[in-house]
Amino acid sequence: MYKPIVVNKRKTWSLITVFLIFIIGLGWLFSRVYPEYSFILPVAVIFSVISSWISYFYSDKIVLAISRAKEIKKQDNPYLYRMVENLCITSGLPAPRVYIIDDTAMNAFATGRDPKHATVAFTKGIIDRLENEELEGVVAHELSHIKNYDTRLQTIVVTLVGVVVLMSDFFLRMTWFGHRRRDSDRGGGQLQAIFMILALILAILAPLAAILIQLAISRKREFLADAEGALLTRYPDGLARALEKISHDAEPLEVANKATAHLYFANPLKGGVVSKLFSTHPPIEERVRALRGMTR
């Protein structure tokens, strides 16, 4: 069970390193084309950091409100509450607040900036339709997200994506309105034209590349949470069976949207091939295969 954890942690940080190098390279290239606009990168970073600061401290409240989740106490659902408490004791985590979403679709999510300010939410569908070991696997998966600070990591990644999108948009707008640097007196016209073409190509493709890197990081964190959830319960097959049941559930989660989809246990948005390509979650078949591989 430990091998998938080590591999997915390494891949996650490798992707983040590539992301940072990509942003620095993009900023450097834009600065070569428009040295008079050297403020592009700092402005993009500051704007994204402010947005992320708001998201960091208030995203849990926003997500819970969007999802129409209601907080419960132990007397409201002793079965679920005790399951969360017992797994928290096993993992050494403080008990998070527990919420229920009044929806028959099967799903769950965790949010909060750190384990002390964490929340887990479950749909009525997933509580009612999963067996004890299966629901326990889902709870362990969500607690693993909290333990690994995945919601904080996603905030950082969203910040990086925001920087790339802002820089690309700014550059394209300048190009569209015909702003050009005149460098004829320095004899660098041909080199400048090469930089211009490269920067224009990157400006168009950068947002797509940034989003794909974000999705790759999100998918690796799902594999990591699966592995650590299985390690917590010592029963990978329970989580695998839960995923299989959810894969056969064609009902979309009504309260979910593209902005919150990455938080959920399984992709709450049902769609075709294009939707799966840009999904924040790896295919359920791959997750089940990885879990079943741990028992061999």
UniProtKB/TrEMBL annotation:
<feature type="transmembrane region" description="Helical">
    <location>
        <begin position="37"/>
        <end position="58"/>
    </location>
</feature>
<dbReference type="InterPro" id="IPR001915">
    <property type="entry name" value="Peptidase_M48"/>
</dbReference>
<feature type="transmembrane region" description="Helical">
    <location>
        <begin position="192"/>
        <end position="213"/>
    </location>
</feature>
<comment type="similarity">
    <text>Belongs to the peptidase M48B family.</text>
</comment>
<feature type="binding site">
    <location>
        <position position="222"/>
    </location>
    <ligand>
        <name>Zn(2+)</name>
    </ligand>
</feature>
<keyword id="KW-0482">Metalloprotease</keyword>
<dbReference type="GO" id="GO:0004222">
    <property type="term" value="F:metalloendopeptidase activity"/>
</dbReference>
<dbReference type="GO" id="GO:0008270">
    <property type="term" value="F:zinc ion binding"/>
</dbReference>
<protein>
    <recommendedName>
        <fullName>Protease HtpX homolog</fullName>
        <ecNumber>3.4.24.-</ecNumber>
    </recommendedName>
</protein>
<feature type="active site">
    <location>
        <position position="142"/>
    </location>
</feature>
<keyword id="KW-0645">Protease</keyword>
<dbReference type="GO" id="GO:0005886">
    <property type="term" value="C:plasma membrane"/>
</dbReference>
<dbReference type="GO" id="GO:0006508">
    <property type="term" value="P:proteolysis"/>
</dbReference>
<dbReference type="Pfam" id="PF01435">
    <property type="entry name" value="Peptidase_M48"/>
</dbReference>
<keyword id="KW-0479">Metal-binding</keyword>
<feature type="transmembrane region" description="Helical">
    <location>
        <begin position="12"/>
        <end position="31"/>
    </location>
</feature>
<dbReference type="InterPro" id="IPR022919">
    <property type="entry name" value="Pept_M48_protease_HtpX"/>
</dbReference>
<keyword id="KW-0862">Zinc</keyword>
<feature type="transmembrane region" description="Helical">
    <location>
        <begin position="153"/>
        <end position="172"/>
    </location>
</feature>
<keyword id="KW-0378">Hydrolase</keyword>
<feature type="domain" description="Peptidase M48">
    <location>
        <begin position="75"/>
        <end position="294"/>
    </location>
</feature>
<dbReference type="InterPro" id="IPR050083">
    <property type="entry name" value="HtpX_protease"/>
</dbReference>
<keyword id="KW-0812">Transmembrane</keyword>
<keyword id="KW-1133">Transmembrane helix</keyword>
<feature type="binding site">
    <location>
        <position position="141"/>
    </location>
    <ligand>
        <name>Zn(2+)</name>
    </ligand>
</feature>
<keyword id="KW-1003">Cell membrane</keyword>
<keyword id="KW-0472">Membrane</keyword>
<feature type="binding site">
    <location>
        <position position="145"/>
    </location>
    <ligand>
        <name>Zn(2+)</name>
    </ligand>
</feature>
